[in-house]
Amino acid sequence: MENFLLVGMAFAWGCTALALIYIRKLLKATAQRKVEVEEANRQLEQKINEHETAKKSLEESQKLLTDIATNMPGVIYKFMLCNDGSYRFPYMSDYAETVYGVPPQAIMENASLAFEKLLPEDLESVNQSILESAKNMTHWSHIFRLHTPSGKIKWFHGQSTPQATEDGVVWTGLFMDITLLKQAEEQLRKSQKLLKTAGRMAKVGGWEYVLKTQTLRWSEEVYRIHELDPDTPPDLEKAIEFYEPDAQPIVRYAVKQCLQGTPFDLELPLITAHGKHLWVRSLGRPEFEGETVVRLFGVFQDISEQKELETQLRQTQKMEAMGTLAGGIAHDFNNVLQGIMMSAETLHMSLPQESAAYREVSQLLSFTNRGAELVREILTFSRREEAVRQPLVLSSLVQETLKIIRSALPTTITIESNVQENHDAILGNSTQVRQVVLNLCSNAGYAMRESGGMLEIHLQKIDLVGQQATRLNLPSGDYLKLIIRDRGPGIPQDILQRIFDPFFTTKPVGEGSGMGLSVVHGIVKSHDGVIRVDSQLGRGTTFEVFFPIVESATEEIRPTSRSGHSGSARILLVDDEEELVRVEKKVLERRGYSVTAITSSTKALDLFRAQPDEFDIVLTDQTMPEMTGLRLSEELLKIRPDLPIILATGFSEAITPEALEEIGIRACIMKPFSANDAEQQIRSLIMTEASP
User: Fold this and answer.
1) Which of 519, 516, 547 is nearest to 385 (CA)?
2) How far apart are CA 465 and CA 473, in angstroms?
3) Which residues, 6 or more positions from 121, have their beta carbon under 8 angstroms from its beta carbon?
4) Is the pTM of this model over 0.90?
5) Which H or E element spans position 457?
6) Of 224, 216, 228, 231, which is closest to residue 199 (Cα–Cα)?
């Protein structure tokens, strides 16, 4: 029994031990499973968190894309070219309604709504670009215009890359509103065009020289000034070689100094690629990085016209100065000639006509008249003497003058004329204008006297406007242009600038006085015209004369004929030259006049105030100290408004027909005058006074 109990207890203990082992294993497995479950739960929770994060990120991305699509000034789209050739928009962002004026859904349902808004002239190019992109599977990029709901036409730029699908070709992309960019481009284009036009008008361009690459760049206008193809890359040394040889060292030195930081401003002569001679202005400035010069830049301008105008201005100033000098000389010389003429006439009248002395005095009077003619030429040059001008048909005058020229030129010189008959008239003095033609043709013949050649004479009507008129320093309008060209040896440039100077001549002594071209210049200027000359050695000389056209011609003004009258008037003679007054008094008294001669204008006025009725006529000089002839005349006429006055003058800018009429002076006589001239004026006034 005990054994049985012991066995039972042992069995029980064994079972218990086994149970404990099993329980221990079960507990261990349970713990392991718990760990696995916890790990699985942790991983699941992590995945849930990641999913939530991804979901949130996706929502944010979707919101961002939606915001971008909503606020972007363009349309996000998906466009399909279907296999059957039709178009479809599977997607279009909300901004489409701003562009097209209809909801995106409507366009997705009917693609034609989008194409209807295209400008007709852009529709074909858009379709063509889509087909080319689909055919070649290349990136699509196109600029087009649309009619927007606001009524404005706007510019858009669309681009996307095609993808092939079973249903057709699909483009997913964006087209943006680039209207502001286009407007900016257009404004920039206009600004560039304006700058280019301004540069062309001002004949100015820009340049730069980069030291690091040693490259020179020119603007388009600089190429044009050099007469070079814009495709020709400029080179610094070759650019310097365009300057005339004497100017090249100046340019090289200026560039060298500029590389050291000193700017330059040069005006130098240049020869273009086609051999044209110009004057240019080049300005250069250095650009620094720190203390190192890295670039030179500046402007380049054709100033040939400016130089020509400056030359004309200097010539005008010189001619005006010479005119003033000539006028002063003429005044004194007139008085000398006046005394010689009057004295010679007095002597001439007292000599027997068959005597040798009579012939000598006649020769003296002839020389005196030639001197008077020379003075008139000087006064014409200086514009001190105004000849009577009237409308002249220039073509007729030139044709008449050509008859004289043909007979005067040697047979080795032929004349080619293109002077067609017309009725265009200028306001001028026929004698002076004829002198211009004769003088220029005579000079041309002289230039070709040895080798012969052709003398060309052309007359044409031109309309001067804008820069052409400005360059000639003339007002815009219609002009007759007289061209006289010879094929002689030409005139050297250093002489060309002096040919209009008085007394300048290249002719040998005895063949020319040097007054010819200066007188021509004075005549043309007095006729409100301009004369220009161009000459090249070995190719001849061309003179161009411009006369302003007047509307119509009128009858020529002719002087009134004078009839004879015996001298019996009482004359008050006033002149500050004592010897001249003495001679004039003697000549007039010989002709029967009663003459009171005074050498002081103030004393003459005092005498007249004391005896205003003792004189029938007053003959007074203009240029006198204390009181001029004009001023004296004014004072005399205050005393006796009906007093006949003759004003004698060699020159005076103040003496015009209007000034004489305003004062009340009846006549004006130019020095030097003969006794016959003086008597003719006196008789004319006396007869006028005697007329009822």
Assistant:
1) 519
2) 11
3) none
4) no
5) strand 453-464
6) 224
